[in-house]
């Protein structure tokens, strides 16, 4: 499923002048504005401490804003969000299929009633032959695939991903980047992806939101107009190199603001 052109996408949510303060005086975010449209792949790129993960936690409802507001178009429902954390956060005593069942289980739905959805999600991440395996039997990349399957199994409007590939080796990371774009195209979701990697952000995103810290805020947005699907050919193209330079320049500007 190819997303609509930028100017024709419907709104999913807006962050309007969002500020988050901890312990009364630590300002993690100040006056952050962000519009998220259906089909967007947005990367939040910036130095450590710039509030990327805080922004995700606020969108996910895991923390409350100190000021400003987050507004969902049409209101928010329980199926609007899927979340993938930096660690897979799988239940070690549960099988792969049981881990993917968790979002349904929390809503009181039996395994039998959603078995087809679980199988389809695992098929999409290439783990249909590991239904009865346990996390200890999986590689790091496979565990992350289970986590992604769990986030997407309810077909949410928006998937939040907080540096999900940061701990993986480069080959596995590249492979999962490719797979993630394939999955997004198949289920037609919207993604906000936190990363420290310029190269990853350019390959995955159509919008890169560059943030500076102290206080956390958006300083620039880089648009990546390269069409999907993206391949290794894009990774070695002059267009990709130029976009990486543009994003790197914006990141250096962000780093300069906190030096």
What does this structure look like?
This protein is an alpha/beta fold and 259 residues long. The chain has 2 domains: 156 residues, Rossmann fold, CATH 3.40.50.300; 68 residues. It has 8 helices and 9 strands. The strands form 2 sheets. A 6-stranded mixed sheet has the order 5-6-7-3-8-9, with helices on both faces. Helix 2 packs across helix 3, helix 3 crosses helix 4 and helix 6 crosses helix 8. The N and C termini lie far apart (42 Å).
CATH architecture level-2 label of the largest domain: 3-Layer(aba) Sandwich
| Spatial separation of the terminal alpha carbons | 42 Å
Q: From the alpha-carbon coordinates, what is the Rg to the nearest angstrom?
A: 18 Å
User: What strand order characterises the main sheet?
Assistant: 5-6-7-3-8-9
The structure class reads: alpha/beta
Q: In the CATH scheme, what's the topology name of the largest domain?
A: Rossmann fold
Overall CATH class of the largest domain: Alpha Beta
How does the major sheet shape up? Answer: 6 strands, mixed
Element pattern in H and E:
EEEHEEHHHEHEHEEHH
Write a brief structural summary:
By secondary structure, the protein is α/β, with parallel strands linked by helices. The protein is built from eight helices and nine strands.
Helices, strands, pairings?
Elements: E1 11-22, E2 26-37, E3 41-45, H1 52-60, E4 67-72, E5 81-84, H2 96-105, H3 111-124, H4 140-152, E6 158-162, H5 170-187, E7 190-195, H6 198-204, E8 207-212, E9 217-223, H7 232-235, H8 238-258
Parallel strand pairs: 3-7, 3-8, 5-6, 6-7
Antiparallel strand pairs: 1-2, 1-4, 8-9
Helix pairs in contact: 2-3, 2-4, 3-4, 6-8
